[in-house]
Design a protein that fits this description.
17 helices, TIM Barrel, eight-stranded parallel β-sheet, 461 residues
Length: 461
């Protein structure tokens, strides 16, 4: 059996996916010497199917999440993995239907997206999803990694991951690009790693806008890291995630509750604290991503931080949606103007002016508010699939949404790849031009038309 699509799309412009995930592998630790592995072992190390953090079990390891059994506290003991499900032809109704089904191990194996781990499978998926080039982002390296209490171990782990992902992406140069992780636990060590990966050709580093080891990223102690960013010109991706600490700020479902050492904190934690314990989704998922990003942006724009680092020209806000941006910029401009005479730091320009000159912001396929305000976003918006996570979508879905609200073709080309190419300094290439007419599926797989009918939005009025 095959499922078909109507009104198939074609595209002539290149698409760059600015935020799609890959699953880390225990092979990462093979990039350390035997002595270095022993040094790291007490702090951050794979132990069977678990990840040990500071000598205790941090969580079920990502390399054991793929086939089945990891469903974020869902009612069934076995289901598709939320982090490795959204591949080619997997619209949101199909995914919702799959989560409602009682799948066998074999069926979970079929749904599991191998491209989350295999670069060759990833490229085959890119062709089907209308994606020409992609920046790949890790999972545990932007969450549990932040809890490492030994700075030397954090630096070694970051280096080993960066060397591993560099080789992973090198299997398909010009299509797969790695984002580097840096040991923000220690600003000097972070600066050293930034300079090293920049020489290797990395286009971006990832930083979480959270407190790590008592340091929020814009605090004075982080100056060595930001000077290295200025020196290299590397893009800084401020990447959001569910609040990364313990019971003090939520997210016990991800195994953080016993890792918090009292020195890791996220603004998104306030959201998790306010939510009911019986939330239908993981605590903090509703707004914590956006709250983390908004808090970071307001601090950066109003603190004089960017005046202090004038050569820091390219910063991207990632995985927080983008529809909230106009309101935040308006509020920051208002505060800047009202309290102009009370500025304690050098902040000389309207926050919105600085943002449009030096920032980019990621959006995802279903963000209709971005498309309806395309004139505001057309030079700063960068599209992200968020594959292979459960809320991900392909390029065809984004194009179809833009067409529905009449976004001009030239603006689509900027939003879907042109802005990213300018930000990263990459040469754009086109590999995928036509939406697939069909996706071969086994007989048990839900039909798209049936899933859409079953999960159609409720009509109002």
């Amino acid at each position: 059996m095959s499922t078909s699509k109507n009104a198939l799309l074609r595209k002539s412009y290149p698409v760059f996916d600015c935020d799609a995930h890959l699953t880390e592998s225990p092979d990462q630790w093979n990039y350390l010497s035997e002595r270095e592995r022993e040094e790291v072992r007490p702090w951050f190390y794979p132990e069977g199917n678990n990840l040990m953090v500071n000598g205790i079990i941090g969580t079920q390891a990502v390399w054991n999440m793929g086939r089945y059994g990891y469903n974020w506290g869902g009612p069934k003991p076995r289901g598709p993995a939320v982090v490795e499900i959204a591949g080619p032809g997997m619209g949101k109704e199909i995914k919702r239907k799959l989560y409602s089904m009682d799948l066998t191990e074999e069926q979970c194996e079929y749904v599991w997206q191998k491209g989350a781990r295999d670069p060759h499978a990833r490229v085959r998926d890119l062709d089907l999803m209308g994606i020409d080039q992609v920046m790949v982002i890790p999972l545990r390296m932007v969450s549990h990694f932040l809890f490492i209490r030994n700075h030397r171990a954090a630096a070694l782990v970051a280096r080993s991951y960066n060397d591993w992902v560099y080789d992973w992406c090198s299997s398909h140069p010009g299509r797969l690009y790695p984002a580097a992780c840096v040991p923000v636990h220690n600003p000097e060590m972070a600066a050293t790693e930034i300079r090293r990966v920049a020489k290797l050709g990395f286009k971006a580093i990832l930083v979480r806008p959270v407190d790590v080891a008592g340091n929020y990223p814009i605090r004075p102690a982080m100056a060595p890291m930001w000077r290295a960013v200025e020196e290299t010109g590397i893009v800084v991706g401020m990447h959001q995630l569910i609040a990364p600490a313990g019971e003090r700020i939520g997210s016990p479902g991800l195994g953080y509750s016993h890792l918090d050492n009292g020195h890791n904190w996220s603004p998104g934690a306030l959201v998790a604290r306010a939510e009911n314990q019986n939330q239908i989704a993981e605590k903090g998922q509703s707004l914590s991503f956006m709250h983390e990003a908004k808090t970071w942006l307001a601090n950066v724009l109003l603190s004089g931080f960017l005046e202090k680092y004038p050569r820091l020209k390219k910063m991207a806000i990632m995985e927080s949606n983008a529809g909230w941006l106009p309101l935040v910029l308006e509020e920051c401009d208002k505060i800047f103007t009202l309290y102009r005479n009370e500025h304690k730091a050098q902040a000389t320009r309207l926050p919105s002016e600085i943002f449009f000159e030096r920032f980019f912001i990621a959006f995802e396929a279903d963000e209709t508010p971005v498309y309806k305000q395309h004139q505001l976003f057309e030079n700063i918006g960068i599209w992200s699939s968020d594959a292979y996570h459960h809320d991900a979508a392909d390029a065809w879905a984004a194009i179809r949404e833009m067409n529905a609200v009449n976004v001009p073709l030239a603006t689509q080309a900027k939003l879907m790849g042109g802005n990213a190419a300018r930000m990263y300094g990459i040469e754009q290439k086109v590999f995928a031009t036509e939406e697939p007419a069909e996706y071969p599926r086994p007989d048990w797989f839900p039909k798209e038309e049936d899933a859409k009918r079953e999960f159609a939005p409720l009509k109002r009025g």
